[in-house]
Design brief:
The protein is an alpha/beta fold and about 260 residues long. It is built from ten helices and eight strands. It has an eight-stranded mixed β-sheet, with helices on one face. The protein is elongated and about 65 Å long. The mean pLDDT is about 95.
Length: about 260
């Protein structure tokens, strides 16, 4: 029988997750969002009903998947009606126990990937880290996860928190550096595209070398003259500090 799913949330993660579940043959019943506009945009893609009130939620779905910001999650859980299905959140940094006082079947599906609505992804290669409040619910979540991904692992909350931290460091922090580089290049009349081959090689190199082995650059060589030139080019004091601090750490962790 097809699995019936309700999405609480219509953002980046919800969009990719619901589209993947829809393609895999699940029935997306409803999409909840605070605004009916966001709910409708996603609902139209997956043949679901958009709602902007928890009271309008169907109580007969198999899964209620919460893909909302961490600070909004508990407030929404508290408003939920009594339902029979499994409640699941997709957060990297919130414990599975957040559901404990409110429902008897609950868990986590954490996709380790960066999601933007305007980018399509092959969901079946995204690793999903799952957890639940007991073995039976783990099985149910596993069955759901297997419809959309080939890479599924059980992982307890405290380990997932570390994984999320490392995800932020390797994705969000690195991307912030891209944004600063783009800004500086723009000021100098150069396009960000000139960096793309470098970005690509840096990302691919760590598939074959450990990051420590792959490290290059002036900080590794302790080339103080070059580093000082770079610091002088930066106008922002905080950015100067980031450059110094990162360079110091790179030199410290060299092989």
């Amino acid at each position: 029988t097809e699995m019936k799913i309700i999405s609480i949330g219509a953002g980046n993660v919800a969009t990719h997750l619901m589209e993947a579940l829809y393609r895999s043959g699940c029935r997306i019943m409803q999409i909840y969002s605070r605004t009916i506009e966001s709910a409708t945009v996603l609902a139209d893609k997956v043949e679901a009903m958009p709602i902007n009130s928890i009271a309008a939620m169907d109580k007969d779905a198999d899964f209620y998947i919460f893909s909302v910001s961490d600070d909004a999650l508990l407030g929404l859980i508290k408003q939920m009606p009594r339902t029979r299905g499994v409640w699941v959140h997709t957060s990297g940094s919130i414990s599975v126990d957040i559901f404990a006082r409110y429902h008897h079947k609950y868990g986590v599906i954490y996709p380790l990937q960066t999601f933007s609505k305007q980018r399509s992804l092959y969901f079946n290669s995204i690793p999903l880290f799952i957890e639940a409040n007991n073995a039976d619910v783990t099985k149910e979540i596993m069955l759901l996860a297997q419809t959309i991904s080939r890479k599924i692992e059980e992982l307890p909350s405290h380990k997932r928190h570390y994984l999320h931290l490392c995800g932020v460091m390797t994705c969000n922090f690195v991307n912030y550096m891209y944004a600063e580089a783009e800004r500086i290049l723009k000021e100098q009349g150069m396009p960000f595209e000139v960096l793309l081959p470098l970005i690509s090689e840096t990302a691919h190199k760590v598939e074959f070398l450990s990051p420590i082995e792959a490290q290059t650059g002036p900080a590794l060589r302790n080339d103080e003259l070059t580093m000082q030139k770079h610091i002088n080019l930066l106008e922002d004091d905080e950015l100067k500090e980031i450059y110094k601090l990162l360079s110091h750490r790179i030199y410290k962790t060299r092989l």
